[in-house]
Amino acid sequence: MVELVVPSILAAQAEGRRRFEVEAETVGEALRALPVADLLFTERGELHRHLNVYVDGTDHRERGGLDSPLGDAREIRVVAMVSGG
Questions:
Q1: Which of 7, 33, 41, 62 has its CB 3.0 to 4.6 Å from that of 80, i.e. a possible disulfide?
Q2: Per residue in 21-44, is it b (16+ CB within 10 Å) or e — as a string?
Q3: Sign (positive/negative) of CA torsion 70, 1, 41, 5?
Q4: pTM beyond 0.85, yes or no
Q5: Structural domain harbouring 19
Q6: Is the residue at 85 inside a domain?
Q7: Residue 20 has pLDDT above 70, yes or no
Q8: What is the CATH number of the domain that holds 49?
Q9: What is the pLDDT of residues 26-69, one digit of tens each?
Q10: pLDDT of 13 strictly over 70
Q11: How many domains is the chain partitioned into structurally?
Q12: How far, CA to CA in Å, does 82 sit from each of 8, 49, 85?
């Protein structure tokens, strides 16, 4: 079981919740189990470029991407990037 935390901006579309517990084998599988999964991924199934995902504080790309196994991970945190100029 892993806890997923979504940004507050997605809470309205996530039943008003920011935290979810899911059973999953990989990072991508866990993210797709969220009620807001359709907002996280493009039509091609890729994570939107304005989102960062951290597994126990480590960027998911450093762990091998969405297909990386969760193992004993405890938390996945989705962070919306802020950009501007």
A1: 7
A2: ebebebbbbbbbebebeeebbeee
A3: negative
A4: yes
A5: 2-80
A6: no
A7: yes
A8: 3.10.20.30
A9: 999 999 999 999 999 999 999 998 999 999 999 999 989 999 99
A10: yes
A11: 1
A12: 13, 11, 10
